[in-house]
Amino acid sequence: MPKDNSIKTVLIIGSGPIIIGQACEFDYSGSQSARSLREEGIKVILINSNPATIMTDPSMADHVYLKPLNTKSIIEILKAHPEIDAVLPTMGGQTALNLCLEADEKGIWQDFDVKLIGVDINAINVTEDREQFKQLLAKIDIPFAPAKTATSFLEGKEVAQEFGFPLVIRPSFTLGGTGAAFVHKEEDFDGLLTYGLEASPIHEVLIDKALLGWKEYELELLRDKNDNVVIICTIENMDAMGIHTGDSITVAPAMTLSDRTFQRMRDMAIKMMRSIGNFAGGCNVQFAVSPDEKEDIVAIEINPRVSRSSALASKATGYPIAKIATKLALGYTLDELQNQITKSTSALFEPTLDYVIVKIPRWNFDKFEGADRTLGLQMKSVGEVMGIGRSFQEALQKATQSLEIKRNGIGADGKGYTNYDQILDKLEHASWDRVFVIYDAIALGIPLSTIHQITKIDMWFLKQYEEMYALEQEVSKHTLASLPKDLLLEAKQKGFADRQIAHMLRCLESEIHALREQMNINRVYKLVDTCAAEFVAQTPYYYSTFEADIEKADGTTYSANESVRTDKKKIVVLGSGPNRIGQGIEFDYSCVHGVLAASESGYETIMINCNPETVSTDFDTADKLYFEPVYWEHIYDIIRHEKPEGVIVQLGGQTALKLAEKLDKYGIKIIGTSYEALDLAEDRGRFSELLTELNIPFPKFGVATTADEASKLADELDFPLLVRPSYVLGGQGMKIVINKKELEEHVIDLLKSIPGNKLLLDHYLAGAIEAEADAICDGENVYIIGIMEHIEPCGVHSGDSNATLPPFNLGEFVLQQIKDHTKKIAVALKTKGLINIQFAVKDDTVYIIEANPRASRTVPFIAKAYGEPYVNYATKVMLGAKVTDFTFNPKLDGYAIKQPVFSFNKFPGVNKALGPEMKSTGESILFIDSLKDDAFYDLYTRRKMYLSK
Known about the structure:
Low-confidence stretches: none
Mean pLDDT: 91
Oligomer: single chain
Number of strands: 36
């Protein structure tokens, strides 16, 4: 066996808390890598400070260190584990690479005799240092944009004078385009140059001539020690150069690249990868191509590690890049490894796609009041979705349906823009919703040539949009009775949802579904098989599409459905969709554990999710994966095909929970807590009646549907008031108001953005302490898994608070009230599974703020702090086990603090004050021995600094 047998123990460096620019994709690659090493009998030691992820689950490694990512922690681990032979730094994004470099500079790897695998220091240096990279490209004869580095303000000014405008400033050693900027006008240059120099840890920027309007491509490569190189995926950015790839709509395979140019690009990518040092593993290369007949190619950058795009490429092709890259780092060669999909061919192959994938980023600008919403070189999205279809149009529609932004897809939902000037402005200043605005522009009659001229988006994509609009026009001429079968089939093949077609025909979604049934236009499921069905695939990883019936010789018709239904008892777990503020990776953690627990309980497990960055959409997490939008129509069709025992909704956050009503209405069994109980907890009026019956105190409140009602209520309740819409997550739209003027403004604003919603007005308990509890209940017995006290006062959203486990400042009398209230409420709601309850403590009385009978943001944190698999137990309770069947044995010396992490640096000038609406993008965990610890003291003294109304 050619692998390096001297490697027995490997240290993996994780990526830390989720921030904009570095999200769950590294949790996915780190988890894959750890599994890959353990398959080889190698001991895995992991360092990562993020408690919300699967990667830091005790089952993933032999030792998991939830410690800050710094060299002090690295030294502590290396001292505790002298057996560590090697470190793998390529799985934890830029954070891991930078930490690895720092440890190398300090001589730490040398001191402990630890070797680097998967990359070498020279490769990191040459690719991250813009000047060295430029020199390398010149040496190997690869074209690049005219560029110069500057390490001071004066040098930068000289370069600008030489090149002229427009220019691009890119700081060295940063992630997610931090500090990068376009400079169109001379007067903006000084400020942006200073910002770039400050953003770079080595105070160096590359200033290059802006390739505005050029097309952008990414290639994902793997290389082994014998210099075999395979290109796993070619990704085309629909958006032209000038928008960060993490904020671009991307398509695989590349759609508008000529074969001649693709071959040149391949050769360049392979040449670049072979020239950056002697390493085996994964690599991401980005190119710009001129939008003319010449198709000149310019290299932009190369990353010698797995990246955001490699997670996407893995899901797009079914080729597990991180898993294979890890094996290559151990010394294997590609021809010796098995193709994970076919299980019969080798990994030395390049996937062929017989489908199209479209990735669309998910933004959260509404959380950053006053943020610049224009897209550019700095990444601003917090997550992403992926749609798989037989055509670009189908994949695009599925991706937009997955975003959960109250749109039913592109067009045909009555929510498009109709103002000419507004549309032109949104096209010109690349807006987050430009993917929809292009359609609106076509609908308004703006010529494709004008749209192309403004956006520089390739004409091929614009023509695809035009075809979709033409089809909408055609369908709209009909009624439900007159719509021909071929037109309905074409609309479904182009990805239009039943709800959109119903909008065109002015009828109900259910009527379109019935018409489809009648005409036998049903979804069929296809395998994601990496090799265009040339070999038999063994992995149950599916997407849906529509096909015309095939007629056999005997006159019977059929359509090819590759998803074969088994006779086993099945459970569907609904995933949590795209990562976003308020609903992050912690729900993916719960979904994965739910799948594993259902599997242990003897069920066939089915996962439905559309997030390409996460472990839940790995092809071997569940028995079957449907990579589909978590959107009613798709879910209903899958359920009708699979006929499961029931659906688990309480692990996928608000995304899954919002579908409970529909499931209940259609008679589909919800596993665990019933829809009735979920709805009761969300309905403030009914929930308060329940609390009154149980004799549990809650702040005075009222419900309003107009500004007038809210004003009358305010007289009864007294200011300050906490105003919020019902059925939202992450405190969306919550605000504390202190007078009638503020109340009226906020109510009008809310009703405009969420029409028809009920608004809840609570008397705000100023100065109260906030606490929360998570528990598992089987309908009768309740086990409280953790009670946390927030360091910040009541009024800061729980997701933005430092939560301390166990409480540090609550007396026995208060704690007893919390325990009693939790047990009473859990049983009264007939909870089966998890429940989270939030409390406000004032003058030794415990008031209920809210109860959520589902997995919460804090469950993974408590599970990691106490070292207990709580989601596993809770899922088994949902499936019929009793709480009393489990032996709970939590272990925690001292305290654990869940610390929120913010990405405000991406939005200069935004109000950083915290309040009832959540703004953090991730979290880390901090363990302290006692309350005398400096870190706790520091947090406690600053606790009131951020509270805003």
